[in-house]
């Protein structure tokens, strides 16, 4: 039970950060502004990448919080962070301004929580007998 509560708290915390970043891309900067920023950073296919990143962060963050489709969401969020690390942050090192520490932490946490999301998740209710989406199935 303690591990399940810890996983829930982790999912909520990491999910909130992803939701905030995705929401910011949609509402504060807009996809056009995010795309322009991505283009300046050298992100390939900047408009497609901006739409992907904003959607994965917002929807994926909400799904992480709810605990639905956790393995899929964990992989998508981790892939998004891997792209951010390799394309934008890696040249700046791990620490300091523009460093990769946040994207490494977020990506690793999303991946871990995607495959170990705890019992308090919608996956446990919706996919009771599915070994892929509900790792608790023996």
UniProtKB/TrEMBL annotation:
Major localization class: membrane
Superkingdom of source: Bacteria
Signal peptide region: none
GO cellular component: plasma membrane
Topology of this chain in the membrane: Multi-pass membrane protein
Membrane-spanning ranges: 5-23, 43-65, 72-90, 102-122
Location relative to the cell: Cell membrane
Keywords noted in UniProt: Cell membrane, Membrane, Transmembrane, Transmembrane helix
Record family assignment: Belongs to the DoxX family.
Protein name: Putative oxidoreductase
